[in-house]
């Protein structure tokens, strides 16, 4: 009886260990597959002219996101040169909604020595069904279309530039290998530093402006004067301030303007501007004055120079007599005694 119990206990322990091992194995497989082991898969097909670089396990990306792997690569048996190889793609069924029916795929490569991967670009809005074909669109191979001759020439140019730098030729080479350009730059920086120090010296005009408040006071003085004048106006000082603060001068000026306006209205309403009689009288007076002036101008005394010459001669004789009198008064002062 004890042997039977011992055998049953051994069988139980083996069953428990086996169950635990299966759980551990399932967990490891779940972690290794990223949790997609038990998710429902769908297969899509891609026909390409050449499967170089593509194999089972190659990644499949949709708009840059990895969504599956290549599950099989085989010859399709088609005579179409663009459909020689059939590539089976395994993706989760939930990913089909991200691959519309109008989407297309390309075989892309990240580096010259790297393996290729299936790059699917989502396009359109049609519904993608399982076991359907994805349109293949050929991508130009940059390494096939690379101009090796031009690339080699560029490498030679780069090598020449590096050689010039190493031998100290050219501006860059002289700067890297020699000291002349370095010393020149250092000398110029020293001169600039001396100029800045000289400008910052308090004995110079620039230094005085930087370290003293002379310039500040020159700018501040007119601002203070303007502020004081405005304060005087606001407080009613001065003629302008009284005019702004006191209404008496304003009313007086207004009354003067009103009186002037009344006088102008009275003058405009007078007979001088509304009657021709006064105008005719003024016109006759002006005409008479003009006629009098013409009569005087027609007088022989103004028409000839005889009267002017006589008066001029008389004035000359009087001037001469007065000069002689001042020089010798006794000549004209003669007294006769009876």
What does this structure look like?
The protein has 12 helices and 7 strands. The protein has 5 domains: 1-38; 40-136; 148-178; 213-269, no CATH class; 270-333, no CATH class. 57% of the residues lie in helices and 14% in strands. It has helices at 2-32, 148-167, 170-177, 180-200, 205-211, 214-235, 238-245, 247-269, 271-274, 276-298, 300-303, 306-327, and strands spanning 41-48, 59-62, 65-75, 85-92, 104-109, 116-121, 133-136. It is α/β, with parallel strands linked by helices and 338 residues long. The longest helix is centred in the N-terminal third of the chain and has 31 residues, at 2-32. The mean pLDDT is 76.
Q: What number of domains? A: 5
Give the overall shape: elongated
Total count of strands: 7
Q: What is the share of helical residues?
A: 55-70%
Largest sheet: 7 strands, mixed, barrel
Strand content: 5-15%
Biggest sheet: strand arrangement:
1-4-3-2-6-5-7
- Regions with little confidence, pLDDT below 50 for 5+ residues: none
Count the DSSP helices.
12
